[in-house]
Amino acid sequence: MRAYYFDNLTGDQCALHDSGRAVSEEHLSALGVLHWKIIPIDEAGNWQGEIDSVAKEKSYKNREVINITKEGLGDAYESKLKMFYEEQCLHITEHPPDNWIRIHVTPGDLLVVPAGIYHRFGLDELNRIRTMRLFKVRLMFSS
């Protein structure tokens, strides 16, 4: 995991947009963002036991896996990517002064973002991410 202030420049939203101003894990923790590095527990890369342990410790009863790739989403990729970026690497805001912090994650990074903190998801130049959301309340959706 690497965290830094977003540069707010226009252009490709998948570019790193690194302002050159790093954000420490201690600063993220002060904002309520927690980080673990989950290590696979066997040669097959299974990490389920560690995720289950953190979920139990933090009382996360529900989970949802999101897999965003150009191949997987096909023609809907561009519109979905824009939706994730505009509505939801993870960006969080710092209040005040409403600066975006970009958190560039790699496989095995587990972040806890506190309830109520505004955030959004984005992709880096690899254009793919597989994430799992853990949450305490059940999400309801009606269309």
TrEMBL record:
The keyword Metal-binding applies. Its EC number is 1.13.11.54. It is an enzyme of class 1 (oxidoreductase). CDD domains: cupin_ARD. GO terms for biological process: methionine biosynthetic process. Signal peptide: none annotated. Keywords: Amino-acid biosynthesis, Dioxygenase, Iron, Metal-binding, Methionine biosynthesis, Nickel, Oxidoreductase. Its cofactor is Fe(2+). Pfam families: ARD. GO terms for molecular function: acireductone dioxygenase [iron(II)-requiring] activity; metal ion binding. InterPro entries: ARD, RmlC-like_jellyroll, RmlC_Cupin_sf. It catalyses: 1,2-dihydroxy-5-(methylsulfanyl)pent-1-en-3-one + O2 = 4-methylsulfanyl-2-oxobutanoate + formate + 2 H(+). This is acireductone dioxygenase (Fe(2+)-requiring).
